Amino acid sequence: MLPTTELALLRRVAHEQAVCRTPSLVTAVVRDTGIVWSGGRGKVDGTRPGVDTQYRIGSITKTFIAALVMRLRDEGRLDLGDPLDKHLPGTVLGDRTIAQLLSHTSGVTSESPGVWWERSAGGDWAALRDSLGPEAMVLRAGSKFHYSNVGFGVLGELVARYRGMSWLDAVTKELLQPLGLNRTTPVPQAPHALGWAVHPHADVLLPEPAHDAGAMAPAGQLWSTLTDLARWLRFVAGDTGEILHPDTMAEMRTPVAVDDADSWTSGIGLGLQLFRDSGRRLAGHTGSMPGFLANLLTDEGSGTGALVLANSTAGVGIVGLAIDLIKTADELEPVLPAEWEPASAHPDLLDLTGTWHWGPTPYTLKLRAGAWLELGPTTGYGRASRFRPVGDGTWTGVDAYYAGETLRVVRDEDGKVSHIDLATFIFTRRPYSPAGPIPGGVDPHGWASSP
């Protein structure tokens, strides 16, 4: 990036590290090519930390578990609306759905019973399962957002049962290895930071423990680096390769519940935290374990993302810092639009483009790359959506009002397009065309000059 941009970014990071008295802090700005800027402050083993220094990433671990659950869904092994008992019987959470566990709306207690799991060695699945009694159901299922580490311990076991291996082996085989995340591990590997607590009233440190969390490990066990997390951030933004369909990732970034209903600045999707700031919609996840704080965040509009890793139990404003890095990068060096290039199109698809009418309202149908369709009101307000081809001559809505709905092109006996059927709504070339199967029929007198 330009020297002026780099100075502005480093100035923000330096201020955070100094004011928050953080032993060390590393950050990065990420775009579609990877890391475009990184900066560190403080020391790890006497030197400035960099893109290959490991930090514990805490609850960012949950995003890996969520991706595996969505892979199981896409394979047809489960449905997000299924109750847990259908796939992992024998728990008190049996009536809670997979989607509710992913979105922290299951009403399950936030922490596992017993001692503080983040600072203690964890037990096995049987111990966690048996510790969860009726009192673990603290809220009505689906009633509101209530963050639950326990829920992701459960989802980790669900993944393990279906894959016939530990959650960690499944993450390694299906996500880490294909993406080349070789420095994302369950225990630290040098060079790595040590976790510290900073005294609130003195500039002294206390080391924090780092145990294997056992059955709770899927909620926050992993360690990683800026280099690895930059690739994972691009994955969250939609660069999923062959691992997940980009539509599935977009589904995960879609809001399910909000944390602050009055202002809606933070919420949750399917395993991803969501934030809104100054018109920006951001997705990713924070992480917090004793001695460490982390954040991974991408702006869905600009495609710019930020990473923050610190080895302090508290104090660093990881969300605000990440958002400020994204804002600074986009304001000083905005992302350029991709160059337009012409594309080939089948004549039959070209014939579909142009003006269609839903009743008297004109809509414009446009053909996009990959045989996608885009339908929206020609002027004024109305329902607009994009549609991806299914392969059987139909299209499926991917966003807005028609998300999930089927768009079907209907032809007459001569093979000519008669109308478009979209979730029972009939679109015709002429407004209320008598030739189209308009629900309720069209008055035989047609259009008149007066009532």
From TrEMBL:
Residues 13-315 form the Beta-lactamase-related domain. Signal peptide: none annotated. Residues 346-429 form the DUF7586 domain. Gene3D superfamilies: DD-peptidase/beta-lactamase superfamily. Coiled coil: none annotated. InterPro entries: AmpC-like, Beta-lactam-related, Beta-lactam/transpept-like, DUF7586. This is CubicO group peptidase (Beta-lactamase class C family).
